[in-house]
Amino acid sequence: MSDSSSKTPQNPPTPGGESQPTTGQYKPDMLDARPVKPSKLGYNIALLVLGIVFIAAISATGADWGRLVQLPGNMVNYFTLMGQGVAQPLTAEVQQHWLSAFDNMLESVQIAWIGTVVGALFSLPMGFLAARNMTPLPLYVVVRFILSVIRAVPEIVFAIAIMLPIFGLGPLAGALALGISSIGTLSKLISEAIEGVDQGPLESARASGATQVQMIRWAVLPQIMPEVIAIWLYRFEVNIRASAILGVLGAGGIGSLLSALFGVRAWDRIGITLVVIVVVTIIIDQISAWIRHRVIHGAPKKEARAARERDDSDGVGVPPAGAHPI
Amino acid sequence: MSTPAIEAPARPQKPRPAASAYAGLLAAAVGLILFFLWSSTSTLQLDIGVARLPLYPILGALGVFAVLALCWRARTGPLTALGALAVIGVTWWGGSGIGFTLAPLWEDFDRGWPIIQEFLDPSWGFIWRVWDQWVVTLAMAVVATGIGCSVGLLLAMLASPVSSPSKPVSQAVKAINSVIRSIPDIGYGLLFVAMLGGTAAGAGEMAGILALIMFNIGIIAKLTGETIDSVDKGPLEAADATGSTLLQRDRIAVLPQILPGYSSYSLYVFELNIRASVVLGIVGAGGIGSTISVQLSHFNYSNISAIMIALVIVVLIVDYVSLTIRRRIT
């Protein structure tokens, strides 16, 4: 190490230069020593604390870890039963099982969609009210607080506390509960998109004497719309999973079917239902991901240039430079 | 807006979208309205003197034409307008499928009001009586986050083409990840409760932890996988140039880049776990949810209300703490 560094010329005159022996023996001084590795003490302490918390948590759960021993056997057992259920020949009865699973899954998708639409309708205005650059401070603080409370409350709470008493057990109550709880996340993400808009169009709109509404319409909406649509679609994917949760309470859809099937341990039908859930969810995720990508990144490569020219003065189709997929 | 008369080159106008495309859209709209008429199950009718028309399809038709007119005026491209029509169609399908109506809000409000009143009067003493269940819930969330996020990181590494040993491995693991992700947390809860036994059998916590772990793996593998896909390629090339093995490359070039994002996702998953454990408890996995389930079956709404207030407070605290940590990390 030292022989290689002795060949390199020292550009800046070092303060301790006089102590440097001139007889060929090179002694590195402060300035050309290798940089010292920064201390990892804080990092290590954090890791240690994490480890302690983890071990304490393992003992605090009071879980019976011995039961893990019998899990693999049970799993093989039940998965075989489920597999047999999926693979059994399509008699009229089995066909009925597949159809009822599919119908229930579609109902879950409907619940999720209506919930997302309800949330989306409220989230755009709420997003503007929760964006610091669009709203006076007092209103902003109030709206932000309401949103963070909505986000903290799980959707199941809305379902039990507000929707079930009034709307009764059913898909409608589930959809409205999802809708209300969607407002929190959607508005927060949208408000962040609004706060991140490019200031240029806003300034030019203001300079040309635009009113607040005109500024929103011509300077803000065109910039955020692709991102907003992506946020809505993303929430739709989340809501499909959440609607299963509400189904267990009796809000209909795939959750109700699943909990009924688990109640009677009908493993063959459980297998069929799980396959339907996986397939439908993956298909919808793929479609949604494709639309999100298309909306944010615009048309595929060869059309992109033409599309940009076409959409130039309108702006609705032009993705913001900083847009990122969620 | 009145523009002053300027002779100089006229302002460039965006051309109207092709009329032929909009004619096609009009045909699609008519098809959509026929679908409304066909699928409408409501018997509500609109009396316009000469004839009686079905109410909801008429409203739907008005909506369709309004959206088309708006798109034409805003000079939206035909594809976007088609998307808007599709949204209306799907919303109609969903709304009629679940029987969407807001009428219960004013018709059945009296029926629900006593229950809501009970919710508005929480029994504060109950909050402290179930503190041990809170400890269990938090501990379950910690354990599940720890295990789930570790496995999730491994799967994300294997799934991303950047850090995966080979393309087949990456494709296979990606498929596994999407299957894991597509089953909702409640599905895992029911599955593990059925396999191990629920709270009644004394295995509720174990089942809950396992369900949360699967739930976490799905989320972490997805989010972290996307982060790995978009890492800076420079360090990767440098690692390759120095002849590092795949493991060394992942350790030195990939991991440091994704660590801030990964830690932040892990904290986010931890928050999700607390919310999810409420749901899991209702199907028989342990934690605070089992208490809610018991109170729900006794129709003891003021106790549930107390638990839910405590839940909101716990979630807000965890939210705040993790936000502070995330700010320091990233």
From TrEMBL, chain A:
Domain ABC transmembrane type-1: start-end pairs: 105-288
UniProt membrane topology term: Multi-pass membrane protein
Pfam families: BPD_transp_1
CDD domains: TM_PBP2
Entry annotated with the keyword Cell membrane: yes
GO molecular function: ABC-type phosphonate transporter activity
Protein species of origin: Nesterenkonia cremea
Subcellular location: Cell membrane
Taxonomic lineage from the root: Bacteria, Bacillati, Actinomycetota, Actinomycetes, Micrococcales
Record GO cellular component, one term: plasma membrane
UniProt key word Transmembrane: yes
Regions of compositional bias (Basic and acidic residues) in chain numbering: 302-313
Entries under PROSITE patterns matching the protein: ABC_TM1
Stored InterPro entries: MetI-like (IPR000515), MetI-like_sf (IPR035906), PhnE/PtxC (IPR005769)
Protein name: ABC transporter permease
NCBIfam families (UniProt xref): PhnE
Organism domain of life: Bacteria
Similarity remark: Belongs to the binding-protein-dependent transport system permease family.
Residues spanning the membrane: 41-63, 111-130, 137-153, 159-180, 244-264, 270-291
Record keywords, A-Z: Cell membrane, Membrane, Transmembrane, Transmembrane helix, Transport
Positions of region (Disordered): 1-31, 302-326
TrEMBL record, chain B:
Record keyword Protein transport present: no
Cellular component terms (Gene Ontology): plasma membrane
CDD domains given in the database record: TM_PBP2
Domain ABC transmembrane type-1 intervals: 134-322
UniProt key word Nucleotide-binding: no
Listed InterPro entries: MetI-like, MetI-like_sf, PhnE/PtxC
Record PROSITE patterns: ABC_TM1
Transmembrane segments: 21-41, 53-72, 79-103, 134-158, 179-200, 206-225, 272-292, 304-325
Highest rank taxon of the organism: Bacteria
Gene3D superfamilies: MetI-like
UniProt keyword terms in alphabetical order: Cell membrane, Membrane, Transmembrane, Transmembrane helix, Transport
An example molecular function term from Gene Ontology annotations: ABC-type phosphonate transporter activity
Localisation: Cell membrane
Membrane-related topology note: Multi-pass membrane protein
SUPFAM superfamilies per the UniProt record, alphabetical: MetI-like (SSF161098)
Family to which this protein belongs: Belongs to the binding-protein-dependent transport system permease family.
Record-given protein name: ABC transmembrane type-1 domain-containing protein
Species assigned in the record: Nesterenkonia cremea
Organism ancestry: Bacteria, Bacillati, Actinomycetota, Actinomycetes, Micrococcales
